[in-house]
Design brief:
This protein is of the alpha/beta class. About 45% of the residues lie in helices and about 15% in strands.
Amino acid sequence: MDYGIQLYSVRDLTGESLEEALQKVSEIGYRFVEFAGFFGHSAEEVADMLARYGLTASGTHTGSGALEQDLEGMTAYHKAIGTNHIIIPGADIYSREKIEEFIKWVNEAIPRLEAMGMTLGYHNHSREFYLTEDGYIPYDELVNRTALKLEIDTYWAYVAGKDPIEMMETYRDRLQFIHIKDGDAEGHGTPLGMGTAPADRVYLKAVELGIPMVVESETLKPDGITEAAICFDFLKKQEAARDGLKS
């Protein structure tokens, strides 16, 4: 199977050398990447780096502010690097005024993006699942009032007290990618296999649904590439275990 990585996982390297980061995650065995910034590189430069190291771009984390400023330009950039998936990594949606503004913008942006062959998704943290002071749950508002595609961050759902496997099943028709990650229930992240999140069951559900898995490991201990390698080893062990059960 092919696995991807959110390049925020190796942010200690991407800011210094995006190309070196791409080279190293490719050497580990990752086959696609999700960008978290381009560090001043043109789309043509990024496309050349991806091709050089046998990688593809599954999508990007791009803030709504950048999209509001230049939707067409951002779309052209994404197409030039070979992806049509834009994922909002989070937004200020924790007051009624803010979420109404965000939902209005999303519902205007989605048809414009679809007309250009693009999709718009949303990546959750834990806060979207908690009741706000204004009496609503942000995630429910996004799901029920927009056509956003979903990238479930399975770890942050777990921290919020949700069952990420149940969520994957519930939203399977809108689910484009998942973040597979680990950590404890208090929000302290770890590489895969070193926390208490149900990463093994998440893995099996993703395989069942055919949902691409994007690794995210955030703690940089001792560095991002080391964590990325630990996570990849975990995925390969899950793959081997599953193949063993099948045989």
